[in-house]
């Protein structure tokens, strides 16, 4: 890799502002990949292989993070504040929240101009982007197979004031060029969406990688692409594309704020309901249902809003329960250890 400047890596005045006199001599670096024992990062001094200090887990860091490092010792000193953070609820593991990517400026929400186009799914992704702090861009691939791609754009943009949408052919010569405004000059971009919508095709176009979708798919029994564990890949325009396996399995996590942003109009109405705990279904004095009755609010939109809120609440409850279970488990282990020590002591 050619030498990169901090600006190339996405460094901004917001980062400089976080430096203190004590940081003199430390090397700013952008985290590329994180494994259990090691962090690889990119810096103006070249790629770095880093370990954490003392007992700190590498799990505190994620692709896209900015850190300050002792480059000579190969140690991470500290992490700078994150502008944005994509997380997901970890399935089955003890951890509640799994970090997916940090400092993603624009989240490309990929769907296609066909049966994959699903309003509820788009709203869920929009809420995810909003709760992470990323600018959402709805990318409608396979425009070449649709009769009226503009109609898809209009329907996508109608979903929320936050949404801008572009219909495109991901396989066209100019595919990367179309996405350039979001993926050049140190900007960080990431792609989410269902399987088969064209994420790999777009990623390859943006990074100038060989088209891996044609042959690799057949060879790989699990249907995985060689490109899924890339971490931080430079785009042909000098921006960054974050592509990690976790990106492919994002779920709603702590998204109340995000849902509120996507459904700002509905949220505003809920403030006017007669009862504070109004479920916006059949309660008297419900401003949301009143708007539906008056024809100023779409009933289906309200249904989708309520469904997302419920989904987010259930996730939150599940994580509280898990935390409680973990506490019980810790207590139990302590008791068992204490008991076995007592036993050993008797021997
Ligand atoms: N005609 C047409 N085909 C496309 C377009 N985008 C993607 N494809 C094709 O759709 C198929 C799936 O594309 P991928 O890029 O592998 O999709 P993906 O989102 O990475 O899928 P996963 O890796 O399963 O998540 C491939 O055969 C692509 O060539 C498009 O805009 N137009
Ligand atoms: Zn109500």
Automatic annotation (TrEMBL):
Main localization of the protein described in the UniProt heading: cytoplasm
The UniProt record lists the EngC GTPase domain at 102-248
Residues reported to bind GTP: 141-144, 193-201
> What PROSITE patterns does the annotation carry?
ENGC_GTPASE
Which InterPro entries does the record cross-reference, listed alphabetically?
Answer: Ribosome_biogen_GTPase_RsgA, RsgA_GTPase_dom
* Positions that bind Zn(2+): 273, 278, 280, 286
Name the cofactor(s). Zn(2+)
What is the protein name given in its UniProt record? Small ribosomal subunit biogenesis GTPase RsgA
> Which gene specifies this protein's sequence?
rsgA
For this protein, the Enzyme Commission number is 3.6.1.-
Q: Which UniProt keywords apply?
A: Cytoplasm, GTP-binding, Hydrolase, Metal-binding, Nucleotide-binding, Ribosome biogenesis, RNA-binding, rRNA-binding, Zinc
Q: What does the note accompanying the cofactor annotation read?
A: Binds 1 zinc ion per subunit.
User: Which species does this protein come from?
Assistant: Gymnodinialimonas ceratoperidinii
The task this protein performs is described as: One of several proteins that assist in the late maturation steps of the functional core of the 30S ribosomal subunit. Helps release RbfA from mature subunits. May play a role in the assembly of ribosomal proteins into the subunit. Circularly permuted GTPase that catalyzes slow GTP hydrolysis, GTPase activity is stimulated by the 30S ribosomal subunit.
């Amino acid at each position: 890799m050619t030498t990169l400047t901090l600006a190339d890596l996405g460094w901004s005045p917001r980062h400089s502002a976080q430096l203190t006199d004590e940081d003199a001599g430390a090397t700013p670096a952008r985290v590329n990949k994180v494994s259990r024992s090691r962090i690889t990062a990119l810096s103006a001094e070249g790629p770095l292989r880093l370990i954490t200090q003392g007992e700190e887990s590498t799990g505190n860091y994620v692709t896209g993070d900015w850190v300050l490092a002792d480059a000579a010792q190969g140690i991470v000193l500290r992490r700078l504040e994150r502008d944005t953070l994509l997380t997901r609820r970890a399935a089955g593991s003890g951890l509640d929240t799994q970090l997916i990517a940090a400092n993603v400026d624009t989240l490309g929400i990929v769907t296609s101009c066909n049966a994959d186009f699903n309003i509820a799914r788009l709203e869920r992704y929009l809420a995810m982007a909003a709760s992470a702090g990323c600018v959402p861009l709805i990318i409608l691939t396979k425009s070449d197979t649709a009769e009226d791609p503009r109609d898809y754009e209009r329907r996508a943009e109608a979903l929320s004031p936050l949404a801008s949408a572009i219909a495109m052919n991901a396989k066209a010569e100019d595919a990367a060029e179309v996405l350039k405004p979001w993926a050049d000059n140190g900007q960080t971009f990431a792609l989410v969406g269902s399987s088969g919508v064209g994420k790999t095709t777009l990623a390859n176009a943006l990074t100038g990688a060989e088209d891996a979708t044609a042959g690799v798919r057949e060879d790989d029994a699990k249907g995985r692409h060689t490109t899924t564990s890339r971490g931080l890949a430079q785009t042909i325009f000098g921006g960054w594309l974050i592509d990690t396996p976790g990106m492919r399995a994002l779920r709603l996590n702590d998204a109340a704020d995000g849902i509120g942003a996507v459904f700002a109009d509905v949220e505003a109405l809920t403030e006017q309901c007669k009862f504070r705990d109004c479920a916006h279904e059949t309660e008297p004095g419900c401003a949301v249902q009143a708007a539906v009755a008056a024809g100023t609010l779409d009933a289906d939109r309200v249904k989708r809003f309520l469904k997302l809120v419920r989904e987010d609440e259930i996730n939150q409850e599940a994580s509280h329960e898990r935390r409680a279970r973990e506490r019980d488990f810790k207590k139990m282990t302590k008791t068992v250890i204490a008991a076995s020590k007592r036993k050993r002591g008797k021997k």
